[in-house]
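Final report, Chapter 2: Outcomes

The project's central promise was a pipeline that accepts a single protein chain and returns its three-dimensional structure in a standardized token representation, suitable for archiving and comparison. That pipeline is now operational. To close this chapter, we reproduce one record exactly as it appears in the project archive, with the input sequence first and the structure output second.
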Amino acid sequence: MAKGKLKRKIAIAEVHKFLHKHNSLEQVIFVCFGQSAYDSYLRVMQEFTES
């Protein structure tokens, strides 16, 4: 697995864990610099929600 994809998986998993413990946030924003970064986060989020 590429380092970038692993970092994105970790970031998404940590946010997911945090949101399950704390319900005070209404929105989480991942800032992506460029379309390829956005597409990559989107793919990882889709993989995360499917599993």
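Archive annotation: DSSP finds two helices and no strands in the chain.
This record, like all others produced under the grant, will remain available to the consortium after the project formally closes.
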